Task: inverse folding
């Protein structure tokens, strides 16, 4: 038996191996107009007879009137400390927990999950998902403002302003940046203060549960980004039991300005306090909020695979016990790309940094090879397949993975300092080359925001070409062997409005939803929507097989054409119906007519997915398929 959770809600137990005394003080929330914590009655906690270093109080024995109460602890007579296990927060002269009393006993406020799934709605399997990375705080902006950079997204704004649109696009999985309470109001939230409560600034516990339910009603899974390497210095654990939870120094671990969790030694006996706290946290969000998985931030700095595997196993078991047959997924953010962690089931999947880096090189024609290294064509094949992308740091291929559901493939995530929004990377140099600016954040924003009302045909052509290039990157992403993910706003080509390198500014640049209404952005979103719906429905994209059937003869030359083609085969030889053919030109050459020899499907009908293009033509005499290819473009065909 573990000290936490306790056997009934009224029994409050907190860690405190060093304090001489701990008292509980509280007051009805209804008495906020008489707010004076120093005058609140104090009730002593007693040392637990069963668990050394823990303190107990049973508030069910206090004969409290029904209602909601705000509460905190007083340590050693003078230091107010909130409850690290608080599930609901209030803020007034500081943060405190809230508990509810009914019929004299503490209760967990009920939430109705009865209508969580509508008839015919199920959640997609891991091999079927398209992941939408969502910083909740970025999901609000006022179209009436010229630069609304301080709006704050909330659960309800997403529910009522965005969920139906996302579901209509075909999005079937949302990965939320950390929603556990953080002291960082405008930032991403990677410094958790309260691990069992939603962030006070983005909504209540009811709001967060309703968000998950609203997603499930639309067939959308919800994955939480959680921080387990560290905690905010203002986390109550630092005040109650630093010797149990805080690692003073640990070789190979970075704290990123926070306090490291202490994993290396037990608090007492065989009890590892930090490990148990975080495992309980994961189980809590599964049982209490019905989440469908986790993304573990900073996996490398946790530096403890056994502990991470325990979290993964316990969360997965909790989900299987409560929701039999429901898919679940635990992802690690590991910049080293150690897919061995998926082989050992330490985690189920890895964020594929190598994919991100290599696809950006591909779509900007910056894959450079040296004598003795793999060729450009080999690198493209490794990128699209599950064989592991090229690693420019160690000049070798990363290890591959066993199944597409082991890899989260992406072009852009919230980590924009290393990999900015794609439209900035593509459009900036184009504007600069055309003499239309310096390619800066301001320059790109001017072009995207002003093109619809500009008489400059050169500007129109350049911006339109940039949108087509962004689509080309999406097309490769959605047809690669992995679980595709993209950052909110990329679907319509949003751009940066602030410095994307600055520690604060990169986190305070919400999606500018007004841009989704511009002509070029609207067309891009419509084309990307077709790709998303293809990826979530086509059987061949939910399997591992891919076969390249064409590279331009000079593809591997330094200045050769960059045309290649591959097939998502569905386990059949290319040329069968029900497959996908992808033809890409990732170079600057424009081909009014390009002939692909040995077209496997001969004269079979093709259905293009994405922007409408000139129909290809099959020549039975030569066996070639002829079609136009714009520079840096990708065309996707269903056979």
Result:
């Amino acid at each position: 038996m573990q000290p936490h959770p306790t056997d009934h809600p009224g029994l409050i137990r907190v860690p405190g191996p060093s304090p001489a005394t701990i008292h509980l003080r509280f007051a009805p929330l209804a008495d906020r107009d008489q707010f004076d914590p120093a005058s609140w009655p104090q009730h002593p906690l007693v040392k637990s007879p069963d668990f050394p270093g823990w303190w107990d109080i049973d508030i069910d024995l206090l004969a409290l009137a029904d209602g909601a109460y705000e509460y905190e602890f007083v340590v050693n007579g003078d230091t107010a400390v909130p409850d690290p296990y608080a599930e609901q927060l209030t803020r007034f002269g500081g943060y405190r927990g809230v508990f509810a009393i009914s019929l004299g006993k503490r209760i967990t406020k009920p939430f109705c999950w009865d209508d969580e799934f509508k008839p015919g709605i199920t959640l997609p399997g891991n091999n079927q998902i398209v992941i939408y990375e969502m910083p909740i705080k970025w999901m609000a902006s006022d179209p009436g403002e010229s630069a609304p950079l301080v709006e704050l997204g909330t659960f309800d704004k997403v529910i009522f302003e965005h969920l139906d649109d996302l579901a209509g696009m075909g999005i079937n999985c949302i990965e939320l940046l950390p929603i556990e309470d953080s002291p960082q109001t405008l930032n991403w939230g990677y410094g958790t203060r309260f691990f069992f409560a939603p962030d006070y600034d983005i909504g209540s516990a009811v709001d967060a549960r309703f968000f998950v339910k609203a997603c499930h009603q639309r067939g959308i899974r919800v994955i939480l980004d959680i921080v387990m390497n560290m905690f905010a210095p203002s986390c109550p654990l630092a005040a109650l039991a630093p010797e149990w939870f805080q690692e003073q120094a640990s070789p190979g671990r970075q704290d990123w300005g926070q306090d490291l969790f202490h994993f290396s030694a037990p608090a007492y006996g065989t009890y590892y306090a930090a490990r148990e706290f975080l495992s309980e946290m994961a189980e809590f969000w599964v049982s209490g909020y019905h989440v469908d998985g986790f993304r573990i931030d900073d996996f490398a700095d946790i530096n403890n695979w056994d502990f991470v595997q325990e979290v993964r196993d316990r969360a997965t078991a909790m989900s299987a016990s409560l929701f039999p047959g429901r898919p679940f997924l635990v992802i690690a953010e590991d910049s080293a790309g150690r897919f061995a962690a998926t082989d050992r089931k330490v985690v189920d999947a890895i964020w594929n940094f190598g994919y991100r880096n290599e696809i950006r090189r591909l779509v900007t024609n910056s894959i450079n090879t040296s004598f003795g290294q793999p060729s450009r064509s080999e690198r493209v094949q490794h990128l699209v397949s599950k064989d592991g992308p090229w690693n420019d740091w160690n000049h070798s291929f990363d290890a591959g993975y066993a199944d597409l559901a082991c890899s989260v493939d992406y072009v852009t995530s919230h980590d924009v300092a290393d990999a900015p929004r794609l439209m900035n990377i593509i459009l900036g140099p184009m504007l600069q080359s055309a003499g239309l600016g310096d390619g800066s954040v301001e320059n790109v924003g001017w072009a995207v925001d002003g093109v619809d009302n500009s008489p400059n045909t050169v500007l129109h052509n350049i911006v339109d070409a940039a949108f087509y290039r962004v689509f080309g990157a999406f097309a490769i992403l959605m047809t690669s062997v992995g679980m595709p993910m993209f950052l909110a706003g990329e679907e319509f080509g949003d751009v940066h409005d602030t410095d994307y390198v600055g520690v604060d500014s990169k986190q305070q640049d919400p999606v500018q939803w007004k841009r989704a209404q511009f002509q070029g952005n609207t067309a891009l979103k419509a084309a990307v929507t077709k790709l998303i719906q293809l990826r979530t429905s086509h059987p061949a994209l939910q399997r591992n097989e891919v076969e390249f059937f064409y590279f331009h003869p000079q593809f591997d030359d330094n200045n050769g054409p960059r045309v290649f083609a591959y097939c998502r085969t569905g386990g059949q030889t290319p040329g069968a119906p029900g497959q996908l053919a992808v033809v890409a030109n990732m170079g600057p050459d424009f081909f009014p007519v390009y002939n692909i020899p040995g077209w496997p499907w001969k004269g079979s009908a093709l259905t293009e997915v994405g922007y409408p293009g000139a129909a290809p033509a099959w020549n039975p005499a030569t066996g070639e398929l002829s079609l136009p290819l714009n520079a840096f473009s990708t065309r996707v065909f269903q056979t």
Q: What stands out?
A: The CA atoms of residues 66 and 101 lie 5 Å apart. The chain has 15 helices and 33 strands. The two ends are 58 Å apart (CA to CA).
